From TrEMBL:
Keywords: Cytoplasmic vesicle, Endosome, Golgi apparatus, Lysosome, Protein transport, Transport. It is found in: Endosome membrane; Late endosome membrane; Early endosome membrane; Lysosome membrane. Plays a role in vesicle-mediated protein trafficking to lysosomal compartments including the endocytic membrane transport pathways. Its main location: membrane. It comes from the Eukaryota. Belongs to the VPS41 family. Residues 1-298 form the Vps41 beta-propeller domain. It is a peripheral membrane protein. This is Vacuolar protein sorting-associated protein 41 homolog. Transmembrane segments: none annotated.
Amino acid sequence: MIYILDHIGNNIRGQEMAAVHTTTVNQISIDDNGDHIASCSDDGRVVISGLYTRDNDQNLNFDRPVKAIAIDPSFYKHGSGKQFVTGDDKLILNEKGFLNRHKTIILHQGEGPVREIKWRGSFIAWANDSGVKIYDMTSRSRITFIAKGHSERADLYHCSLYWKDDRTLLLAWADTVKICIVKDRTTQDARGLPSRYVEIVAMFTTDFYVCGIAPLENNIVVVSCEKDGQNMEGGRLVSKRPHLQILEPHMDTYEELSNDAISIRGFEEYSCNHYQLECITEENLFYIVSPKDIIVAKQRNQDDHIAWLLDHEMYEEAMVAAKQNEHELKKHTYQDIGRQYLDSLMDEGDYEEAARLCVKILGKSKEKWEEEVLKFHKINQLKAVAPYIPTQDPVLSPAIYEMILNEFIQCDCEKFLKTLKEWPPTLYKIENIITATSEKLDRDRDNKILLQALGELYGYERSFDKALAIFIRLKHKDVFTLIHKHNLFNSISDKIVQLMEFDKEQAVTMLINNMDKISIDKVVQQLEKKPSFLHIYLDKIFQKDPQLSHKYHGKQVSLYAQFDRPKLLPFLRSSNYYPLQEAMEVCEIRQLIPEQVFLLGRMGNVKQALHLITDQLGDVDRAIDFCKEKNEPELWEDLIEFSIDKPSFVKGLLQNIGTHVDPIILINRIKLGMEIPDLRDALVKILQDYHLQMSLREGCRRILVADSFHLMERMVRTQKKGICIENLRYASNVAVFYCRHAFHEDCIPSESCPICSTQRRGPGSKGMFAK
């Protein structure tokens, strides 16, 4: 029976062809156009049937078994001669002759049965027990003989032939493969040789038996059986499965590129002779024919490769392959593969990895992102996907973001606050999140993280007063930033103490830099109950400009005395706006002697001030400095009176008063027999000071005398000059020097110009120009 199927196995005629043969069909052949099919059988009959017309149908009986047949590739053409070749113990060319009479021509005989025939273009190749021969229909001559290989098994007579193109023949006999090319001779090398010849470009022996051969680009495809292809099982020989292999041929060897075992029904009972390989070169389709199955094989494409990777759960490799060969894919897409990978990871519980891959797999598809987030929500794993959810390009529905934030409010407050800060507030409805946060705070009032988050939300909502109240309560570091950014100074006029308690330095800096918005009086009023804060504030203002807080300088005296004693005396010296008596009372209460001394001096009570220095401090150097500062003789007298019975004080006076008070006064009052430490050094110091003082006086006297004479001389000369100039009008004898100065002749003391001589230079200072 002969069946006609399309390339993927569908019966295109709806039913099988008629039973034109009574026994096994040995071979079929189809012309190049696919219009006619020829078949032969052991019943001796050859049948040619048209698939679309019956005009050229033939049904011939040769009265002997016909083993092979090949129809002319151009059989479908008008006037082609309707040729075909049959093979039994001869190779016979059949054609229509004169008046459509059947004509036969024996092309070859005498070498046993012809087992395989292939006709391509003008060449016919056939195989018998001795080898393969090629016949040229153009020259009507045989052009080559290729001997068969030597097989270890005598029963392997099957030979596979296939024309790769009009000139290239692939042949395999048992374990020998050859590739032959028909070439044209450029010159006649010898008389009687055909114009064409065959060159074997590759020939090698395989480790297996070849059952069929076909081309695949520059490689070859073979159906093969192992040489030890049968095992003894259960007392009988059982064959192994055949293989489909792709080989890269070379001259003497080959390289195996792939090898796939083929599952065929009943392969245990088949041998190498039961398999055959055919192909459609243009579509890279290969047909493995066996007694019970026809298997279609095709070259694996990227879709097949990816399908295999997915079947083996190699998702990452599949994604890489899809990315690199995206333009070749027809069944798979990068996103679909990624979604399968995500589903696999989630099934395995690897939620973090699945969430991380969402960015790469889902891309900018809003719908796919939302669908995937809902999957995470169903399994309570929103916290895994939240860090990767896009906030722009694409922007998801507000409900998605609110769903995640609500999840965090209930389960993870820290994650909620972190996410709230990272996400733009435009992604969700702020009032909904504020409501949810407030409800949670009602049940957990001490939750500072939620309280901070609520403050952030109020800020997003521009309810800055509410946000500020929360941040101040939490002593949050962003309080001052919030105040400055949104100009909330009116809102903090009653919260200054709280701000100071949070951060004194930042609070004072802010208050001083914004005194136009929060007055000094208002701040002082707020801080009066917190003297330490008030002191810091007023001290900073005083450092910036003492005039700004002059009305509070009296208060500052007590503040400095209480909180910053070292700054009190410099403050007392710098300011003129505090009440002296009140300041004195503060210092007396706290027994601040240096400050009392300064205040007494400022109040004019210098004697009492000196008394404090000597009695309370016992510091002679300070007492001397005080007397030098005031420079009043009475103070020196009091100091001498106080010190005269105190050797250490006497020593200090001897060393320091020599330039202010006559030391003889002090020395005369020292009691005889008083032991004064380092007296000699003190006396030497007095003498040195006295000598220095005398030297300075003498120097000053000399300078004074010289300056007096010089000024006198200049005055006299100036007066004379005026008289001479006045007399020039009436004088008959006038002298004019070369320097052009003119004098009365009687007034010239010498031959030099008096004026130029005074200046000690000048041209023509000697000699007269004219008289």
